[in-house]
Amino acid sequence: MLESMSVLRRDTLHSQQDPLSTGTTDPLRVLTALDQERHSFIGRSYYYIRSGYGSNSLYHMIYGFGGIFSDEPVAHHPYGISWDDLDDAVSRGEEIPEVPGYYFISPLIEKKLRALLDA
C-alpha cells in the first residue's frame, strides 16, 4: 500500500537483498524513528546510515504528499563526510530501534550536513 503512494528509489550499491526492495523493512517505521530524533532532520530531509554488504552508506528520506516521496543514497563526499565518518557513526552503535542495519547519523555528520544545508 505504501509503495502505491510513494516513489522509492533503490540503492544501486546494494543487491536484490536490500531490505527495502524485499519488503522486510517498513519505511514508515524508519521515518517514525527518524522523526523522533531532531538531529536526523536537516534541510528538507531525514538523514540516516545503512550498513550492509561490507560498507556503510548515507541516505536521505523525504516525506511528502502523504507518503515517502524519496528514499535514496546520498553522495557523502561533497558534504565533507568521509568513509571513516560513516564507519565511526555505525561503530557508535546508535541503531534505529527494530530496524537492523539502519543507524542514526553521528553528531559530526550532523554538523557537516547542517553547515551546508541549513545555511
Q: Structural class given helices, strands, pairing?
A: alpha+beta
Count of the separate structural domains: 1
On the 0-100 scale, what is the average pLDDT?
79
Number of helices: 5
What does this structure look like?
By secondary structure, the chain is an alpha+beta fold. The protein has one domain. Helix content is 32%, strand content 25%. It has five helices and five strands; from the N terminus they run αααββββαβα. The chain has helices at 2-5, 19-22, 27-36, 83-91, 107-117, and strands spanning 41-42, 45-52, 55-64, 67-73, 102-104. Strands 1, 2, 3, 4 and 5 form a five-stranded antiparallel β-sheet that branches. The longest helix has 11 residues, at 107-117. Mean pLDDT is 79; it is low at 1-23.
Write the layout of secondary structure elements.
Elements: H1 2-5, H2 19-22, H3 27-36, E1 41-42, E2 45-52, E3 55-64, E4 67-73, H4 83-91, E5 102-104, H5 107-117
Antiparallel strand pairs: 1-2, 2-3, 2-5, 3-4
Short description:
This protein is of the alpha+beta class. The chain has helices at 2-5, 19-22, 27-36, 83-91, 107-117, and strands at 41-42, 45-52, 55-64, 67-73, 102-104. The protein starts with a helix and ends with a helix.
